[in-house]
Design brief:
Layout: H1 2-5, E1 13-17, H2 23-32, E2 40-45, E3 55-59, H3 67-75, E4 79-84, H4 94-115, E5 116-127, H5 133-142, E6 143-149, E7 160-168
Length: 170
């Protein structure tokens, strides 16, 4: 996705929510740079993640009341991008899975509204379904551009999409 949207600029700060196994965090660290006072990646997940050079990881349930403050502290500055690949465990009931994953995306978006610097970006996994309208309205009110994208790597029958929001208004 970064090839298309150019999320990562050298020296920037990324926050990766739902980071395990670490694919996004690794790409972010490579593209942001990891030298002192340069790029920084803060990553959290409820699951363990193998260490990645240039990534500060914290094992944490993002829905814990203290999580947003801990993530802000870990990052140490406002972010250029907040990425969320969080998804609730799949139950097999499409509507339940959609609602649970949308709740995570909404929590990530509200966190991003506090964590991003003006001009920043937000990217989150969502599932196709009927409850994404409110999230899209919230994003459209706070970002210059909002769109959906289905990654090429996603199976055709998958309901997985990503919502991309750019140019945070602050």
């Amino acid at each position: 996705m970064d090839e298309r949207f150019k999320f990562f600029k050298p020296g920037g700060c990324a926050i990766d929510l739902g980071s395990a196994p670490g694919g996004w965090a690794q790409i972010a660290a490579q593209r942001l740079g990891t030298a002192k006072d340069k790029g920084f990646v803060a990553a959290i997940d409820i699951q363990d993640m193998e260490p990645i050079a240039g990534v500060s990881f914290m094992k944490l349930d993002f829905l814990d009341d203290k999580a947003p403050a801990l993530v802000h502290e870990l990052a140490g500055r406002r972010a250029d991008i907040v990425m969320s690949d969080m998804a609730a465990p799949v139950t097999g009931h499409r509507q339940t899975d959609h609602l649970r994953t949308m709740a995570l995306a909404e929590a990530a978006a509200w966190f991003a509204f506090e964590a991003l610097k003006p001009g920043g970006a937000f990217c989150a996994k969502v599932f196709q379904g009927g409850t994404s309208g409110e999230l899209l309205n919230d994003l459209k009110a706070r970002f210059g551009t909002v769109m959906h994208m289905k990654p090429k790597s996603s199976r055709k029958e998958s309901v997985e999409l990503y919502v991309i929001a750019r140019d945070f208004k602050g």
